[in-house]
Request: fold
Amino acid sequence: MIVLGIETSCDDTSVAVYDGEKILSNVVSTQLVHKSFGGIVPELASRAHLTVINSVLKSALDQAGITLTDIEGIGVTYGPGLAGSLLVGLSFAKGLAMSLNVPIIGINHLEGHIWANKLASPELEPPFVILLVSGGHTQIVQVNEWGQYLTMGRTRDDAAGEAFDKVAKLLGLGYPGGPVIEKCAEKGDLSYIKFPRAYLKNGSLDFSFSGIKTAVLNHVKKIGEKETKEHLNDIAACFQEAVIEVLVNKTKEAALRTGAPSVCIGGGVAVNKTLKQKMSEVLNEQRIGIFVPPPSMCTDNGAMIAGAAHFYLTGGSSSSLSLSPEVSLNIPNLNQP
Ligand code: KG4
Ligand code: ZN
Reply:
């Protein structure tokens, strides 16, 4: 079955074609309009999706070497995400499904990040534990079967990617923060300062990243502009180290508690090389396997939506054309409509 995957939940417009074995194309158009604002401006995001979605579809079809009439099903992200951005993708997908007379299925964006691992490593099978770590989400999910998810812990305030973005903004490093902090951190001194790690009480697998962001802010205020500039790399390195330590230790703990033989990572922060390296080291010691998709499949993309959609559509599920955005959709409330 040739499935089109459409993803517009945040600031990436992406369309992909997947035939159940191979990703035939995965075109992503990232919006640059938000850079100067230090974060995503929702109204600008939905307008930018509208402007490019037709040409992104055309490129995806061209690269896959197919035409519209070859499409046999459509998957589209219906939540969580920004209301206006989700609406653009959903309306576009519904119009296509109606005109082509093919089934449509709404896909949970978070489940898409889980499927990115399956597409990248076809040998992956449940049970496993996945750390979903992006700009909007940070949670640990136990996957016992495809389509059955249990959240073991989630952030109580900022997502890890959001913390990278906010710290980059206060250091004057621009948006998105993750890549630039990672780059600065490569040259930083880890013994410069120890920022707080929030492990929370009673062995909780929940996260909290607002404290570390405040700690960086207080430190920067204390040392002033000149010294902050001098120690930019050190601050970035110590901040990154603190966030990663908590992510790795809680994910390891989740894997040990469930007895899962492997761990996956999904979402934009999974691009981070230090996170991947630290996670591998810690899991190797426990003889737990690790799967991480390539960077293009960690950040938001249509292929992960097409992968999940292929699973549901070939299993006989589909959504009605009354499907509407669910801004706060979460796992495990994955009732496919
Ligand atoms: O999954 P994604 O593309 O979009 C959301 O669903 O949020 O993730 C984007 C997030 C941003 O917060 C960005 O700063 C972060 O992923 N990110 C990184 C890196 N690359 C992207 N964080 C840390 N290190 C990176 N190399
Ligand atoms: Zn995402």
